[in-house]
Amino acid sequence: MIYAPALALACIGFLVMIRHRQALLLFMGVEILLAAGNWVALLAVDQRLLSQHVAVFILFSIVVAAAEATLGLSIVLRLAHRHRTIDVRAFTSLRDGGE
Q1: Are the C-beta atoms of residues 26 and 18 closer than 8 Å to each other?
Q2: Could you tell me if residue 51 is inside a domain?
């Protein structure tokens, strides 16, 4: 089955998200889950459809993943700077000024 590695990757990402409470590790778990989703989407493309459209889809998927990683990491760093910890239990409010 060609989807088994993507399923294993999704399980690893889900377990990382459940087990850890540090913001960076939660972010990494989400990234692993999204990578598994991209992998499944790319595997779902039929081999007969290898054309310019598929290449554009793959490139778009990579660009979206990079943009999402940049935004997510900046949010995690901002929360860590504001609260002086990366433990998500310390983040009681996301409102500006709420500590």
Answers
A1: no
A2: yes
